[in-house]
Amino acid sequence: MAKVATTRFELSGRETYQKIANNLQKVIKDQSGAIRTLLAAFASGGHVLLEDYPGTGKTTLAKALAFSIDAKFKRIQFTPDLLPSDILGISIFDQSDRSFRFHEGPIFANIVLVDEINRASPRTQSALLEAMAESQVSVDGQIRQLKDLFFTIATQNPVGSHGTYPLPEAQIDRFAVKFSLGYISPEEEVRILTEQIQAHPIERTQACVSLADAIALKEQVKKIRVGAEIKRYIVDIVNATRSSSGVQLGASPRASLALMKLSQALALFDGQEFVTPEQVKEIAVAAIAHRLLMEPQARFSGRTAETVVEEILGSIPVPA
Fold this sequence. Notes:
The chain is α/β, with parallel strands linked by helices.
């Protein structure tokens, strides 16, 4: 009986994933790989850093996900004058009962889009650290818990460094994955023009699963088995970044945890009861590359963190 219950449990998670993915693909065209990566981070309890050019659909993707699961969505536009209280909230004195009342900031939502995260000062950027790591914030000496489902999608523009504050390594390490949407094919771009003559598809997006289904999806990911050989394979990949040529700072154990959880999500999406090396390899670059600090000489020679991870994947023996 336990075997049957577990199988149904996991297949239910796969069905939830497929419904959300299909809903997103109606809005975000020709981006099935990016959607799969986004949902892997979402289902595994991680957060996403989207680095891409303006107009590629970053904001639309975040809104479409929130609409698809009937979640509370907030957008925070990061600017140089933004303060931590603008994110977390503030206590305001109430004259009627002569006491302070806390007014929640936009961080108290299910899905939070942090637009152009590198436009705000380091002080404001750091306001996200506790929220992303522990799903809580500390305000006025009190710890306040965030929603049961809390997911951050942060964006930044890879061009135009004027007026930006690069994210420190400690904050970049908080993101489970970093990836780009990129430009779509000319054929799909023509299709977008045709579909948006009257209205944007996001306006027709409706919830395809409930918020409870989305929360259950996260719980189901934790049930996917990870064998001892897969755990060692993950650790060997991450450990290899610390001694790779051209890498000044390798990935931390947090990268190993993220890679394992993301792989569990992909296994669930594929309808499997356990993680295989294929799922680890699929998500490794998105989960690890952004955590590596490359030496200046390596950057000048054109060597990238993505190349380093790909080389490691080709050199580490794959478990049988």
